[in-house]
Amino acid sequence: MNIVVLLKMVPDVVEELEIAPDSKSLDASSVRMILSERDDHALEEALLLKERYGGTVTALAVEAPDVDDALFTALAKGADRAIKILGTSVTTSATARLFSQILPTVAGPADLILTGVQAIDDLDGFMAPILSRLLGLPYLGVVTAVKVADRTAIVVREYAGGVRGEFEVPLPAVLGIQSAEQPPRYVPVAKVRAAMKSQKIEAISAPALAQPTVVEILQMTKPEVAGRAEILEGSSEEVAEKVCEILFARGLLQKR
Amino acid sequence: MTGNIWVLAEHWRGQISEITYELLVLGRELARDLGVGLQAVLLGHNAQSLGSTLGGADSVLYVDHPALAEPTPEAYAYALAHLLTERRPKGLLIPLTNLSMDVGALVEAPFVNACKDVRLVDGRLQARCVLYGGKIEAVVVPAGEPTIFGIVPGVRPAERVDRTPPIETVSVPLPEVLKVRWKSYVEPEAGDINITKQDVLVAVGRGIQDRENLTLAEELAAALGGAVCGSRPVIDQGWLPPSRQIGRSGVIVKPKLYIAAGISGAPEHVEGMKNSELIIAINTDPKAPIFNLAHYGIVADALEVLPALTAAIRAKQG
Question: What is the mean pLDDT of residues B236-262?
Fold first, then answer.
């Protein structure tokens, strides 16, 4: 089974994000890029499926800061090929269009195309459903488990409150992964370094595609804070005392 | 008929979702400002009776088809695309929930994701979108119509209007065989405690760092007579079962006390706990969005504060 995983780099929101002087984009110098969390789950699910059914895993990503790290990590974890698309695509829908052009020629015939169900910078749609529409392939999102038998995938997707739904999806198909069946595997840095020495990232040029604006950003702001927590200061012990007072006052803690 | 505002009436297992009534309130504002009608779009099978609860809309467009009996995104998107092409509304509001989120993106129409508000400004619909885990907001305008707006939960207080709206049944030629076939529901494993019934919840997030550290939260929960729950990363790691997940994919809770330990406060999590009576947040990042919501904040490592708090409470209890 040939599985393609689409990876995307997104800003690490653990860092403070700054807005650029144009007030319409992020200040790139303030941003540290990391692999989108859901895409990490998509990669894990792809590797699990390869282990279960055999085949290959090809990881694809559009050029971005630190994308090589993510692609070498994918190789170190067990991906067979890593492909970097040179060029930029600014929006989610443009990236979907780019992948729809490249996938049929570059990655070979795929049985499953997996990617994260969403990313923190999705503004004009979600990649997986747009891609499925452009490729004319079946799609299911919010996926948490995949089994394959006879060119059909049995796919479990999540609703709310722990309820899930089971679907039959004919292959080839595009799936938006919410969570892999197990937490994304850890790979030691040494193994990633070894992959950097022994394996290659294939680089290909992006076809020139029109990137029509679907959603125009007028302004970016940091959210206005409606309310703000009263910050309790002091050592852990002092803070704990203050919390106890608050809980007493509210009747959430009783002296015995 | 063209130029109206539409709301996708989300329903699941025989009930209209609460968020539908929130979207109808927002839709009413937009329809009023635009001087157009507000229509609810109800897609389902033998679900016409649900339309009578959508009195917030001027009328209901109802599509009945066996393929719409269960929430299959492909079938929903097909029906919506057909209606959008035929009727040309100005905007369609869809709930950004696990159930409906991908329906909008499957339809070929400009899609605006993660809207926390939509307003009419200078004759154009303008949305405020939540990006980067709630750390940035973007004011945006879509490039074309009809526009689909994915609306996050809680955008307006839900309101039920006690009035039966006229229901127009629309026939949509859905394909005989759909590619994706719904099979069954998988119910959550029974046996775990019901966290929606707890007065006190100690919620842990990524900041808990390691499975072993869950003990610190369990001890505090035990001291307060509550239970431990978590945000998505903790569930993904398998440290807590899905029955303990708070937020969009999990459950919505309103306990008397919610202690958020090492939780940044991503929008998907906040949806599930924002109505808690008292929220105390512990996080090392002073700018974590959870502090915008919490009543009290502690800027510190949860791994240090949790045991100190447990010890202090135990000491008081004697």
Answer: 92
Q: Which residues contact A22 (CB under 8 A, 6 or more apart)?
A: none
pLDDT in tens, B258-301: 999 999 999 889 999 999 999 999 999 988 889 999 999 999 99
Nearest chain A residue to B192, by CA: A162
Distance CA A171, CA A169 (A): 6
- How distant, in Å, are the alpha carbons of A70, A137, B73, B81, B86 from that of B103? 30, 15, 5, 10, 18
In A, minimum Cα distance to B263 occurs at A14
Alpha helices in chain B (DSSP H): 18-34, 73-87, 101-106, 214-224, 232-236, 267-270, 302-317
Please name which of B62, B66, B57, B9 lies closest in space to residue B32, comparing C-alpha atoms: B57
- Residue holding tokens 């109808």? B24
How long a stretch of residues is chain B?
318
* Cβ(B293)–Cβ(A223) below 8 Å: no
Q: Quick check: pTM over 0.95?
A: no
Q: In this structure, how many other beta carbons lie within 10 angstroms of the beta carbon of residue B55?
A: 18
User: Does the CB of B250 have a partner CB in chain A at under 8 Å?
Assistant: yes
In this prediction, the answer to ipTM > 0.90 reads: yes
